[in-house]
Amino acid sequence: MDVLDTWTRSEHTADVNGRPTTHPVHRKGTGPGVVVVHEMPGLTAGVVRFGEELVEAGYTVVLPHLFGPVGREFSNGDVARTFPKICISREFTKLGRGVTTPVAGWLRTLARELHEELGGPGVGALGMCFTGGFALAMMVDDSTVAPVVCQPSTPFVPGAKRGADLNLSPADADVVRRRAAEGCQVLGIRYASDPLPGTRFDTLTSLIGDAFIRVELEGQGHSTVTEQRSQVAVDAVLEFFGEKLHAPGAG
């Protein structure tokens, strides 16, 4: 059975770099909304399984499909096939510092529409690896009240400056700083030994201080809630979403 058979497929269209852009969206569940942005190489079976955990925990989960294969188990072969396409896509930043990924605007409108439909304090957003910083970019819109950053890995290293960069423009970083000062916390999760996130957690701590909840896992691994799934990581996400999204008045 296809891992997405029980999910409802639709499409979402919004502006990216001045052009109307459409991506498929898969949805399931009831309760407050959560947007889960998949990692490289695509909307893998592991990402869908994590989405199912959130559904079972009482959330309306939306899985946008931005690139790569759908519903397959993770494979290095799929990474090798997807990576060159990502590198030439204008929807995503890969190497540039101090810029926000263009697809962030598309994701913000998706979160905004979900919030308008479901009500409550707002929606959760979770990005991972290549899309790890996307949840921060979504936080620029007030509809995202529970951003989760899992092993953020762009802009790609090497280079100390790239490894410290949050994939945000200066203007968007200022909004993140302001929203954090107003009470919007950010959850970050990584394996402490993983080199791909660079020093971005240190940058986040410098940017928003105690509003950044930092979870660094022991052991070897990269994908904290999927391929090298950690129960500590999943529990931290569930606790964070529960606190932020099940507040009085939540939909």
From TrEMBL:
Pfam families in alphabetical order: DLH
Keywords: Hydrolase
GO molecular function: hydrolase activity
Record bears the keyword Hydrolase: yes
Coiled coil ranges: none
Top-rank taxon: Bacteria
Dienelactone hydrolase domain: residues covered: 30-148
Chain positions covered by the region annotation Disordered: 1-29
Protein name (database record): Dienelactone hydrolase family protein
Species name: Nocardioides exalbidus
Lineage: Bacteria, Bacillati, Actinomycetota, Actinomycetes, Propionibacteriales
